[in-house]
Amino acid sequence: METQPDPTRELVLLEQIERDPDVTQASLASTLGVAVGTVNWHIKRFVAKGYVKVKRAQRRKLRYIITPEGVAFRARLTVNYIETSMHLYRRSRERVRELLVEVKEAGCNRVYIDGEGDIADICRLTCLEQAVEVVTSSDGAVPTVPIIEVRGMKVLLRMPEKA
Q1: Is the N end or the C end of the chain the one with fewer CB atoms within 10 Å?
Q2: Which segments of the chain does DSSP mark as H helices, in order?
Q3: What does pTM read for this prediction?
């Protein structure tokens, strides 16, 4: 069972509740990919802190109303999320710039990016900014250029083996 608040999950829950006050806990759980009990735990916390009020809409149906305190809390969560995302963005760009210095010092101006997602996109943009060409490997062969590996939040450089 959930024992620590997850700011991203809390933000999504509050946004979903604000969008549809008649949303069910089962639907919220499905959206978040968590158990209904986890959603229930969060909602009970929101109620205890005064962020959400629960009204009975029908015999077995509940309606969730976000209070002004809940709106303020959601705003704080949003600002924190944006600040965290921007910090990750800046840190990733700086890391890629450092790796591209190594690439250029090795006499290369082309790289292969091994990975997908937002961090890989940041790598591509940084390569474009630094005038380093990003090559693709359409035939599945191992590229003979430096490889920027994206593993989750980590960005690593693998230089090609010398023949």
Answers
A1: C
A2: 7-19, 25-32, 36-49, 68-105, 118-129
A3: 0.74
